[in-house]
Design brief:
binds 1,3-dihydroxyacetonephosphate; about 15% strand; TIM Barrel; 13 helices
């Protein structure tokens, strides 16, 4: 049961003024830290598998562990493929166990973004998976996660967003209102007026990319204006790297296990902080009673049925 439909999870967050964290994971330390933090906080959580990270780990290899962790969690979990760039990558993600996919055609023209996202939404919805689209463009700041998002951001226009959601059928929309992927440069200026207009016109859960490093007040205002999912990776990456660096001071020739000591704990503490800041802590039970459990997709093909009755065919399924 704890692997749940992300649409139900986000709709609950959206209507109850809190946001669920979509935490980027790159290895088992991240996976364990995210799930144990969620259990400790009794919080729903989204496990983000980010396509641009697949050059650093084997997506197919990690997914059985991700699915196992999600199914065995006692809090609601969704498995989301983040920043997928093609129909083929969405198909692969769903086949490997993601029950939610993002189609990121945000650098394409408006009509091409719509066509490509609609194509993915039709396929994913037929499989029961949730779909996130992006309109506008969230660029990169500095730090490890920034390089993957080159160039300046492009803000989301409310009127275009309405047409985009109607034509693509996405379940939630990533908006660009001033955040950047990677580290924020100083205090980020967010366009709350724009966000409010988008939220008033759309009335669906909105997603914040570049969610690391904002202030408590900014998170609060974002959530009050429709942000129901906050993506976070840079802060986690920086905290893990800081822990490793401090383990190496002074360099006494430590081995791998000693060098990595404390990484999971520091990640878990940061994620717990986010869950409290974003209001998802303590919400698990409410979601569990009203979320649809995720059912894996199975296709059964029966052939050579000549001379076999309908009843016998049905019995084979
Ligand atoms: P940060 O780089 O701010 O952590 O954002 C991550 C993100 O938006 C991934 O989709």
């Amino acid at each position: 049961m704890p692997l749940v439909d992300m649409r139900d999870m986000l709709n609950h967050a959206y209507h109850n003024n809190y946001a669920v964290g979509g935490f980027g994971l790159i290895n088992l330390d991240f996976l364990e830290a995210i799930v144990t933090a969620a259990e400790h906080c009794r919080s729903p959580v989204i496990l983000n598998l980010v396509e641009s990270h697949f050059e650093h780990f084997d997506f197919g290899l990690i997914m059985p562990a991700v699915e196992h962790a999600a199914r065995n969690a006692t809090v609601p979990v969704a498995i989301h493929s983040d920043h997928g760039t093609s129909h083929a990558s969405a198909v692969r993600a769903i086949n490997l166990g993601c029950n939610s996919v993002m189609m990121d055609a945000s650098l394409e023209s408006f009509p091409v973004n719509i066509t490509q996202t609609r194509h993915v939404a039709d396929m994913a919805h037929a499989c029961g998976a949730a779909v996130e689209g992006e309109l506008g463009y969230v660029g990169g700041g500095e730090g490890e996660n920034a390089a993957k998002y080159p160039g300046e951001g492009v803000y989301t226009a409310a009127e275009e967003a309405k047409a985009y959601v109607e034509r693509t059928g996405v379940d939630c929309l990533a908006v660009s209102i001033g955040t950047v992927h990677g580290r924020q440069r100083g205090r980020t200026k967010l366009d709350f007026g724009r966000l409010k207009r988008i939220n008033d016109m759309l009335g669906i859960p909105l997603v914040l990319h570049g969610g690391s490093g904002l202030t408590e007040e900014q998170y609060h205002k974002l959530i009050l204006n429709g942000i129901a999912k906050i993506n976070c990776y840079t802060e986690l990456s920086d905290i893990a790297a800081r822990t490793i660096r401090s383990n190496l001071q002074p360099d006494t020739g430590k081995g791998y296990i000693e060098t990595m000591l404390g990484v999971r704990d520091s990640l878990r503490e940061q994620i717990k902080l986010c869950m409290h800041l974003w209001g998802s802590a303590g919400r698990a039970a409410e979601i569990l009673v009203q979320c649809r459990p995720w059912q894996p997709v199975e296709h059964v093909i029966i052939y050579n049925t000549e001379g076999v009755s309908t009843q016998q065919v049905e019995a084979m399924c």
